[in-house]
Amino acid sequence: MERLVENITSNYVQAANRFLPDSRNVRRVVAYVESYDDIAFWRLLLEEFESDTLHFHVMLPTSYVETDGASELQRGKKSAIYNCLGRMSFGNNLIACVDSDYDYLLQNSTKTSSLVNNSPYIFQTYTYSIENYLCYSGCLHHICVQSTLNDRRIIDFVSFLESYSKIIYPLFLWSVWAYKYNKYRDFSLHTFNYIVKLPSFKVSNPESCLKRLGERIDANVKLLQSRFSDAAEQVEALEKEFESLGVLPQETYLYIQGHSLIDNVICKILDPVCTILRHEREQEISSQAIHSEQYDNEMRSYIHSQADVKDLIRKNTHYRVMPQYIRMRERLRRFVETLG
To answer: For 65-74, 187-196, 268-277, 300-309, which range has the lowest pLDDT when averaged over its residues?
Structure first.
């Protein structure tokens, strides 16, 4: 019996090992990311470049800081970057994949932005974060269809977000200016996110929402212009820098804080739209049902098939046509070529 168990175990291990990569012939590159949410995003991109001889392992860095005499696990962008910098293998078998935040826009204005924009071994999103990709306007109708199983187009999401972006762009310039010139205590990112969130959104009249937002933006821009009257040339120069970086006013939503974008803009649009689309589908089921049993069965099936909008945003992968994503892919392609 013992010999039989040994044979079975041995055969199982041999069979399992056939499906494992041969570490002797495979180059393993560790990719440090900021958080758990980032792992799936970067895995999707990095796996495009994997082969029989190259494998990426996407993971969180393990670093601890001393806080009040106790060790505390540290996560985030700086942890991902500076863990790499402290390793001898950085650049050969270790890279960092991080959100740009404002660093792409700041270029070399700060130590971190200089590092992110110039290191050949740090890869950035070129949007504020991965969440901005998940909210790509060209994906939003698809998310509504997945959530409601209703393909009717109520809102032109692309046009709406272009209009939204153009409206908030003047205040966005001031937000980046505040970080570039160390004025973020006077005009914080939290304040900016609060101002640019959508007012009450009505599907029947989305223009009214944008009009109220525009009035709020104009008032706050005038306030900043009055308070920092000597900054006009700096803000104007920043706008020219953005043009050279390919940052367009109609795409501003891609460069604001991702979590705030989801909660204060995207879900404020999608939730009421999806409510209408679900109601339409339910009415259709009701009108077509021959008897109550059929109605109950159809409704149960429909309710079971629906999906939560936020969950679908997190799982969205239809952003890979975006120029910013293509740029990331191209940078990684060049990096992989250097590995030989």
So the answer is: 65-74
- Give CA–CA dist 329/339, Å, rounded: 16
* Alpha helices (runs of H) in the chain, residue ranges in sequence order: 2-17, 36-46, 77-85, 103-106, 111-118, 130-134, 140-148, 157-180, 189-196, 206-227, 232-245, 258-261, 267-288, 292-305, 309-315, 323-339
N- to C-terminal Cα separation, the chain: 51
Phi-psi region of 182 (alpha: psi -120 to 50; beta: other; left: phi over 0): left
Q: At 293, list the tokens.
A: 């049993």
Q: How far is CA 314 from the centre of its chain?
A: 9
Left if phi > 0, otherwise alpha if psi is -120 to 50, otherwise beta: which for 322? Answer: beta
> For residues 236 and 22, what is the distance between their CA atoms, to the nearest angstrom?
56
242-295 tens-digit pLDDT: 999 999 999 999 999 999 999 999 999 999 999 999 999 999 999 998 999 999
How is residue 236 written in tokens? 């104007």
Q: What CA–CA distances, in Å, run from 243 to 131, 161, 257?
A: 23, 19, 20
Contact indicator for 136, 125 with CB cutoff of 8 Å: no
Give the pLDDT mean for 34-61.
95
Q: Would you list the DSSP string of 240-258? A: HHHHHHT--GGGGGGGS-H
pTM score of the predicted model: 0.87
Instruction: Report the distance separating Cα 227 and Cα 223, nearest Å.
Output: 6
Exposed / middle / buried, residue 292 (Cβ in 10 Å: 0-12, 13-18, 19+): exposed
Contact 176, 105 (CB under 8 A): yes
List the 27-32 sheet strands across, edge first. Answer: 54-59, 27-32, 94-98, 122-124
Pick the closest to residue 155 from 40, 250, 273 (CA basis).
273
130: exposed, middle or buried (Cβ count in 10 Å: 0-12, 13-18, 19+)? buried
Q: How many CB atoms sit inside 10 A of residue 4's CB?
A: 8
Distance (Å, whole) CA 182 – CA 139: 36
